[in-house]
Design brief:
- A hairpin with a 2-residue loop joins strand 1 (9-13) and strand 2.
- The protein has a domain at 37-121.
- The chain has helices at 37-55, 61-68, 72-79, 86-93, 103-107, 114-121, and strands spanning 9-13, 16-20.
- The chain contains six helices and two strands, in the order E-E-H-H-H-H-H-H.
- The protein is mostly helical.
- Helices cover 44% and strands 8% of the residues.
- Strands 1-2 form a two-stranded antiparallel sheet.
């Protein structure tokens, strides 16, 4: 039988047990991923709708909206998500978006330039 000794202690902080490392610092595991399913679904829809328009399956946004029984204005707003910088889309899909970022924020008009998008959404420090 082998015994392994790991020098750490436990302390109750804020109602939770936390690991205190030998140097006195608190162990902080990587932040949990917080995937916003509403944003992910909207991104998936946006890219699917764009493919349908580009392939000719639907000739216009009006036709697409009618086929999916969705308001044309909403389709237009969601389609704009395909203009997001690829690294912003990747961060959102990985759950690394800023804590306060909501789908409603992304449906508002945003800059087309990727560097400006990064600054506006606070996803990448410039």
């Amino acid at each position: 039988m082998t015994t392994v000794f790991v020098p750490m202690t436990f302390r109750r902080i804020g109602g939770r047990k936390r690991i205190v490392l030998p140097d006195g610092s608190l162990y902080n595991p990587a932040q949990p991923v917080s995937i916003d399913n509403a944003i992910v679904r909207a991104l998936a829809r946006a890219f699917r709708w764009r493919r349908q328009l580009e392939s000719g399956r639907h000739a216009s946004i009006n036709e697409l909206a009618k086929a999916d029984k969705i308001d044309r204005g909403y389709v237009s707003k969601v389609l704009r998500l395909t203009l997001l910088a690829p690294d912003i889309v990747e961060a959102i899909l990985a759950g690394r978006q800023p804590e306060g970022l909501k789908l409603a924020d992304l449906l508002e008009p945003f800059p087309v330039a990727w560097a400006e998008q990064r600054r506006e959404f606070g996803l990448v420090a410039e």
